[in-house]
Amino acid sequence: MEKPFENFGSMVFNETEMRERLPKPVYSQWKKTVCNESLLDRQTADAIAHAMKRWALEKGATHYTHWFQPMTGGTAEKHDAFIDPDENNEPLTHFSGKNLIKGEPDASSFPSGGLRATFEARGYTYWDVTSPVFIRDNVLCIPTVFVSYNGESLDKKDPLLKSVKAMSHAATRVVNLLGDKDVRSCNASVGLEQEYFLIDRAAFEARRDLKLTGRTLFGAPAPKAQELDDHYFGSIPVRVSAFMKDVNEELWKLGIYSKTEHNEVAPGQFEIAPVFTECNIAVDQNQLMMDVLRKTAEKHGLACLLYEKPFEGINGSGKHNNYSIITDNGQNLFSPGEKPSENVRFLVFVCAFIKAVNTYPELLRMSASCAGNDHRLGANEAPPAIVSIYLGEYIERILTDLVKGKKTDVTKDAREFSPISGLSYIPRDNNDRNRTSPVAFTGNKFEFRMLGSSMSASMTNTVLNSIMAKTLNDIAAELEGIKYLQDVRAKALDICRTILQENNKILFSGDGYSESWIREAERRGLPNIRSSVESYRILDRADTVALLTGLGVYTKTELAARKAIYTEEYIHKIGIEVRTLTKMINEEVLPAMTEELTFYSNAYNAAGNAAPAYIKDRITGISGLIDQVYNGLDHLNKVYASKAKKPMSTETGIELYNEVCPLMDEIRVFINEYESIASDRFYHIPSYEDMLFGL
Ligand code: ADP
Ligand code: MG
């Protein structure tokens, strides 16, 4: 009998492994470091490195690497073998505390937004002791932060760790003030649901647009798409099952509790979700998960598409970020408990969340911005670009009553029913499911649904932690100095009432996709930022700088650098799309059209006046489309060339979004029109049908 969970965590140097392999004083020193209570000294580091090396060699590892998360949104690594020649030129394995703690990957080519002048272009990596070391493909991977010579953060992990610290401090303050003095720290818990598409590898290889840009730049709709909803939660195809089995085994070995998997709405679309964990680790694990999905797909003759919108007219993919705050003794501060209306702490944390989101909606929207996500957010697809919160009827009622000073009778829930006789205990779900909402309260956590499927979840959680830290610190300041606990609690409820009255506009329970909501949101004064490049403006706005420098999460220069990097990235991505489209049209589309036109022209010439209408129609149709594609491309390239000369600024990015992207969409229509009549004798680019129904 195969034991599927036998190897769980076998590739992680986790706490159990450390406890077993490290001398006791070393282990406790490491624990103290993780809990932020002390710094790691040289001897401890050497001892840990030694044990780690032995463990890694036993597992067949040959190399080690400092695994880090540059601002590209992916991960980076540079491998070093464990082996060195000794004085007799014999091989000697070597891995010191210094190797473990600090690395100099150089890596001067990563975008730094001017943070690293070329004369000191070096970047340094430092071990993040809070995230476990793991082995992947015979390489011992050490999660690290990546900083410049001057200590400015060059990656996505360093600010996230700083934001956790800030949030922990603020949340602990509030919890302590509300009477629970045992709590010493808090952490954000995050569960990331990951959507993706799978297509046959051969089709992927034959589509340059998918390979170079992540999305199809054209493609006529397949005769069947998702109208029957027959894919959603359907039985998983055999090939995909085999793939998922491998993915799960790989993830389990890496200590990732991969938990749920199912078909998504679109054909060929799937979702995988692990059990939630501390946010820093959850973000690391999501990066690993994306990597495992991609590589396992390759082994199975498949391609895993993580891009936000690979196919036009078909649902895109997102990444749901489930967020809660948990104390060091395991209490979830968003957990309503049996009597939420009397649960002051719960009310305070939910109200803090509402205020935080309502105060910084643009920052949150920006954290989900990338070129790919522009095709989802604000483009008639889930979720809209307008940030709002959906609480669900139950919590909404409690908060409304709180404002009115009324006590909610939670025992009377009209909607409670027993669907099956014989079940006396039916766990109650405190959440109505409004799938159109970008932020929803779902039971004991807030689910942020704007993130794009390809993105690192780091920025979103950095923002969530930071805006919660700020709001909770403000609340703590109001509560501090009040002498008696009952007065503190009364004051806390007062604060909640004020928050609800002042931040009501962010709450919305209707259909987030509807046109009427866009107008309503405008009336309420909620921002609706359509494009990612526009959203990056928030990064150096005064209130953002004040918030994030105040909490020690970013410096002003680091924020400016991020704005520059993300804007440049956007501009480059549009450039790549234009060039890819141009190449595909010139090398594949127009030649196929011309060949097909020649074929019909020959038939026409042979038949003379007796040629059937079909042939004449094809000749006029195809030659007309050739002109449209050709002229469209010419126009696109002229407009693009004029923009490409401009500086890498937000303005240039917005011009690309408004003036260049629509031109690509126009050409797409003509190619699609040709594709829908093209013969496969001439046209060889894999179709939507090949890709979406080819599993
Ligand atoms: P759905 O698709 O209905 O949104 P899933 O079960 O697919 O739900 O995913 C829910 C995600 O939320 C999982 O990753 C789960 O581990 C995570 N989660 C559950 N409770 C919490 C919590 N308290 N804090 C953060 N994440 C949580
Ligand atoms: Mg979800």
Describe this structure in words.
The chain is of the alpha+beta class and 695 residues long. It has three domains: 12-154, Glutamine synthetase, N-terminal domain (Ubiquitin-like (UB roll), Roll), CATH 3.10.20.70; 163-219 and 229-417 and 428-554, Glutamine synthetase/guanido kinase, catalytic domain (Creatine Kinase, Chain A, domain 2); 569-692, Up-down Bundle (Four Helix Bundle (Hemerythrin (Met), subunit A)). The chain has helices at 15-21, 24-34, 42-58, 97-101, 157-177, 201-205, 208-213, 238-253, 279-299, 344-359, 361-366, 393-404, 458-479, 485-502, 515-524, 532-535, 542-550, 556-607, 613-644, 650-677, 688-692; strands at residues 12-13, 63-67, 79-81, 83-85, 91-93, 102-106, 123-127, 133-136, 139-148, 186-200, 258-263, 269-274, 277-278, 302-305, 319-327, 389-390, 439-441, 446-448. Strands 10, 11, 12, 13, 14, 15, 16, 17 and 18 form a nine-stranded mixed beta sheet that branches. A hairpin with a 2-residue loop joins strand 8 and strand 9. Helix 10 crosses helix 13. The radius of gyration is 28 Å and the shape is globular. The two termini are 29 Å apart. The site of magnesium ion (MG) has 3 residues, from loops.
